[in-house]
Write a structure and sequence with these properties.
Blueprint (H helix, E strand, L loop, with lengths): L6 H7 L26 E6 L2 E14 L2 E6 L8 E4 L5 E2 L3 H4 L17 H9 L27 E5 L7 E10 L2 E6 L8 E4 L5 E2 L3 H5 L71
Antiparallel strand pairs: 1-2, 1-5, 2-3, 3-4, 6-7, 6-10, 7-8, 8-9
The structure holds N-dimethyl-lysine.
Length: about 280
């Protein structure tokens, strides 16, 4: 059974605070998702945002939709919030004087686009206009602070929303760092990105949330997802160290002392005191 991630416990353990909701370009309450699988709508082509295409809802999850452009393959699916500016009811593009375009990588000859469009829309289930939500307003400026926790889309696995931390703030951008993943998935984005959410957003919207990974900078387990309820094993006493030390082996000459040279401008890592 699915156990929601316990943010309260994690914030205590990491002695950290969530980024306040007013930092984000997100609705106060996650928008209700009334879309159904197979519904068709208009979407900007993520690979060519000047064109509007027909898209089909492949998955409905929390306040998000997994979309596939009609005439494209199944390897270029993308996710949008139901209050994204980039999705609209079928007919919106034409009303505003535009023309529906084939997706980048249209699998047929370009000359077959008009007939393909006719056939793909004929008898289709169109998403009704009333289930599209207005995009929320953007905060006026970047209010994020380093160290604050948030929930963020993993851009390499965009179906995932994960436990993250603001690693840096620069002008109108923030560095999103994924807890327990050694930097491999981190990215910079604008403070008003639609891919970042306040702590608790997933739980509120019914979207799964990925807990922290298990890797820290040394590759050893750091955050214990389910800590044992028993007391930790204490370290062994240090009183007998000298008494039990093995006799020195006098048959071989002692090894020469080792000299490690460290460039002053470099860090030697957590075990090296570079001030010596
Ligand atoms: N199996 C993939 C998924 C990694 C997901 C990382 N996110 C949660 C930051 C991998 O290990 O590469």
């Amino acid at each position: 059974t699915y156990q929601p991630f316990d943010w309260d416990e994690y914030l205590k353990e990491t002695n950290s605070v969530p980024a306040p909701a007013n930092c984000f370009k997100q609705a106060i309450e996650p928008p209700k998702n009334e879309f159904k699988v197979s519904m068709k709508l208009e979407a900007l082509d993520p690979r060519n945002v000047t064109s509007t295409c027909i898209a089909t809802v492949i998955t409905v999850l929390g306040s998000r939709l997994r979309l596939r452009l009609d005439g494209s393959d199944n390897k270029n699916d993308f996710w949008r919030l139901v209050d994204s500016r980039e999705i609209n009811p079928v007919g919106h593009c034409e009303k505003s004087g535009g023309m529906l375009q084939p997706p980048l990588g249209f699998r047929m000859n370009a000359s077959s686009w008009p007939m393909f469009l006719t056939k793909t829309l004929n008898g289709a289930l169109m998403a009704p206009a009333n289930i599209f939500q207005k995009e929320p307003p953007s905060p006026k400026c970047n209010l994020f602070q380093v160290g604050q926790k948030l929930e963020a889309v993993d851009k390499k696995n965009p179906q995932l929303i994960c436990c993250a931390t603001v690693g840096a703030v620069k002008n109108d951008q923030i560095h999103v760092t994924f807890d327990g993943w050694r930097g491999a998935f981190d990215y910079w984005c604008k403070y008003d990105s639609r891919d970042i959410f306040p702590v608790g957003w997933c739980a509120k919207s019914g979207h799964p949330m990925q807990p922290p990974g298990q890797k820290n900078n040394t590759g050893h387990s750091r955050y214990k997802f389910k800590p044992a309820l028993t007391a930790p094993v204490p370290p062994p006493p240090i009183t007998s160290t000298v008494a039990e030390a093995p006799e020195a082996d006098t048959s071989a000459p002692p090894p020469p002392p080792i000299t490690i040279q460290i460039r002053k401008s470099c860090s030697g890592g957590p075990l090296i005191d570079s001030t010596q």
